[in-house]
Amino acid sequence: MTSPLIRFRGVSKRYGALTVLDQLDLDVAANEKVAIIGPSGSGKSTLLRVLMMLEGINDGVIEFDGQPLTHMAKNGGLVPASESYKRQGRRNIGMVFQSFNLFPHMTALENVVEAPVKALGLSPREADERARELLDMVGLSDKFAAYPSRLSGGQQQRVAIARALAMRPQVMLFDEVTSALDPELCGEVLNVIRRLGDEHKLTMLMVTHQMGFAREFADRVCFFSEGKIAEQGTPQEIFGSPQNERTQAFLSAVLDAA
User: Is the C or the N end of the chain the one with fewer CB within 10 Å?
Assistant: First the structure.
């Protein structure tokens, strides 16, 4: 068996007295597509944020490709990672947020060009070529010069996906990327993610309330409850015959509401 690309070992995250991740263990294989579902406040988005090192952790270690990600080796032991060490680790991971987070004063093309030039040291010409290719891939070849305010929510989210891909990450994280969109715009974003999964060798973790998409898209579904994985399995197992009472109640409520 090959080693996991991502490994959470006893990871806890607390905000004061509130425990958001509780001694979490999770392995993710290279090229695996994992859907993360569960009620609000169960730790789903926090999982992505600590993996992206936007938040620190209180206990445990996160490893990437066999090396500590949140910590670094020093004097024969592990110490919390420095900012430069974390910046290096983030190059392997792209994250797309529910709120787009585009620079409003930059065009779609400029938004995608920025990070490869600043963080990877690409020449402006190389970054421009890469950005045009990616925007074309997400169906926005006619929007290079458009500012975010002139784009629909679905178009902005596709720019955000292209921007994350411009860093050539090994892992893509999607945090409720359709929750801020009108229902008719969800499909265009999910189609882009579907294409990424089909055509590119990417490890993907997706926090979502889109149960139909999770069932179709994922290799594995993890149901979160109170900072832990209460149940996990294939989409057929989780959606077809969940064993955990909390999973059953959640899916019943979500699917009834749909």
Answer: N
